């Protein structure tokens, strides 16, 4: 009886080990591994993720709804403020000034009463900027500003006709949209778009990139045809015969 039990145990161990070994084998050739699957094309040939492009910090987490409570609070709070200001016809700058006046008066009275009653003062943080923070921010702004200036320089010098069309179209859209909106509504729309477009794009990145790249390829084809048609109509000076 013991021999049969030992044999059954050995057989069971053998089967289990065989199953484990089979499960560890690589996939079949009909299902290639991720190593051999070409990476999907990304818009603008970028290599960074959306989170990295947004800075990779807390701001990126909020815009991508990775901190849902904070993202919802900012979105709902900005919407409520916009609605109240639009309904009451109150201006933004006077409102901010009155809020600051109220806060300063409360802190001033609190601090003086606390000193008279030997109580702790208001918990005001250290309102200073470190040199490293200022230098890093200035460095980032300098790089981005130089990119913008480089684009405008290329457009002004006529180096890139396609870029010229893009800049003109973008400026026309901005001028048209903001001419119909007041400053407060424009800020609110920017906040709404900042909380929706990055999140939607990060969620459906592959599908959106595929459709946008197809549209970009079609636009490039039409641009090449238009460019060739325009250039063909430009009169050119006849080539001079080389002196013998």
Automatic annotation (TrEMBL):
Residues of the Reticulon domain: 59-244
Keyword field: Endoplasmic reticulum, Membrane, Transmembrane, Transmembrane helix
Keyword Iron: no
Superkingdom, taxonomy of origin: Eukaryota
Keyword Transmembrane helix: yes
PROSITE patterns per UniProt: RETICULON
Signal peptide: none
Localisation per UniProt entry: Endoplasmic reticulum membrane
Topology in membrane: Multi-pass membrane protein
Residue stretches spanning the membrane: 69-85, 92-113, 169-194
Pfam families from the UniProt entry: Reticulon
Matching InterPro entries: Reticulon, Reticulon-like
Name of protein: Reticulon-like protein
């Amino acid at each position: 009886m013991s021999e049969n039990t030992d044999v059954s145990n050995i057989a069971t161990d053998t089967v289990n080990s065989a199953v484990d070994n089979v499960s560890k084998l690589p996939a079949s050739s009909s299902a290639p591994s991720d190593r051999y699957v070409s990476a999907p094309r990304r818009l603008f040939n970028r290599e960074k993720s959306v989170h990295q492009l947004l800075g990779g910090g807390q701001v990126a987490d909020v815009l991508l709804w990775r901190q849902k409570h904070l993202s919802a609070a900012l979105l709902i709070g900005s919407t409520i403020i916009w609605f109240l200001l639009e309904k009451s016809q109150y201006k933004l700058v006077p409102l901010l000034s009155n809020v600051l006046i109220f806060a300063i008066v409360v802190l001033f009275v609190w601090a003086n009463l606390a000193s008279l009653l030997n109580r702790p003062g208001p918990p005001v943080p250290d309102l200073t900027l470190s040199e490293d923070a200022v230098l890093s921010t200035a460095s980032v702004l300098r790089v981005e500003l130089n990119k913008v200036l480089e684009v405008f320089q290329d457009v002004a010098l006529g180096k890139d006709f396609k870029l010229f069309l893009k800049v003109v179209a973008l400026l026309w859209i901005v001028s048209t949209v903001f001419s119909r909106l007041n400053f407060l509504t424009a800020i609110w729309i920017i906040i709404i778009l900042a909380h929706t477009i990055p999140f939607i794009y990060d969620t459906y990145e592959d599908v959106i990139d595929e459709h946008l790249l197809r549209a970009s390829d079609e636009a490039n084809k039409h641009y090449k045809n238009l460019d060739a048609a325009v250039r063909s109509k430009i009169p050119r000076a006849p080539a001079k015969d080389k002196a013998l």
